[in-house]
Each structure stands twice: as C-alpha cells, then as structure tokens.
Specification:
5-stranded mixed sheet; alpha/beta; single chain; 138 residues; 20% strand; 5 helices; 41% helix
C-alpha cells in the first residue's frame, strides 16, 4: 500500500476506525526526517495490512499542534482509533518492524479499558464524575 499524505481534511477518514495506522510527522528541511523516509517506505511495503501515513508539519501545522509535535521526526501509532505510541526520533528498520508487531499484538479491549479508567480518574480529579453528578452530592 502506498503511503498516504495526511491533512486536516482527511485525517479522521484515514485514521479512524479499526486497524493500525503508522504516522510519520516530518518536514522537508529536517535531515533526520529525510534519512528515515526510505526506512518508513520499505517497512510500509512489507506490511500490507497497515496504513502508513505522513504528516508534513510545515504544510499541516494544525495537525502538528493538535498532537503537540515539538520534535521531528515523530512516529505515532494509532490502533482502533486509540493512540498507542508516540515518540520523537527516527527508528532503525528492525525497531519499527518490532514496534508494529507489538502494536498488532495489543489486547485493545484492555487498552480501551485502561484509557476509560484514566479518563474517569481525570474527571474525578477535575471535580466531575462521569455521569455528570457532583462527587460531593449525596
């Protein structure tokens, strides 16, 4: 599968839903980004069931800002509409392949349960309960 160029207009369409998407946040002026590009493309050719996408941070500053991208290249993995990995830095081919394998092996029911628990804790810390009642009512 060819690498998809992500924009703010097609991001949700490409990334939402089931499956694994590997995203490379990059810029043309970035030397490490240019060095990593062939590795990203090579791995994409060997993973036909994974969507590989690139975000040009210069052309798509809103997307870069939405994900707090402060260093490039940044590699992000989204599986079943949940971000499961995001780290700056170019990866060697073996590390990228291993990362994809680990993401494929995740128990997404467990991941989603943990995300929901973390959101519940954040809501409680903010003084709100999930059902909208004040935690101090009773």
């Amino acid at each position: 599968m060819a690498t998809v160029e992500l924009t703010k207009e097609n991001f949700d369409e490409v990334v939402a839903g089931d499956g694994l998407t590997v995203i490379d946040f990059w810029a043309a002026w970035c030397g490490p980004c240019r060095q990593f590009a062939p590795t990203f493309e090579k791995v994409s050719e060997n993973e036909p069931d994974v969507v590989f996408a690139k975000v040009d941070t210069e052309a798509q500053p809103e997307l870069a800002a939405a994900f707090s991208i402060s260093s490039i290249p940044t590699i992000m993995l989204v599986r079943d509409n949940v971000m499961v990995y995001s780290q700056p830095g170019a990866l060697p081919e073996t590390a990228l392949v291993d990362l994809i394998s680990q993401a494929k092996g995740l128990d997404m029911d467990e991941v989603k349960r943990k995300v929901a628990e973390a959101q519940d804790e954040q809501a409680k810390a903010a003084g709100q309960s999930v059902n909208g009642d004040s935690p101090n009512e009773g």
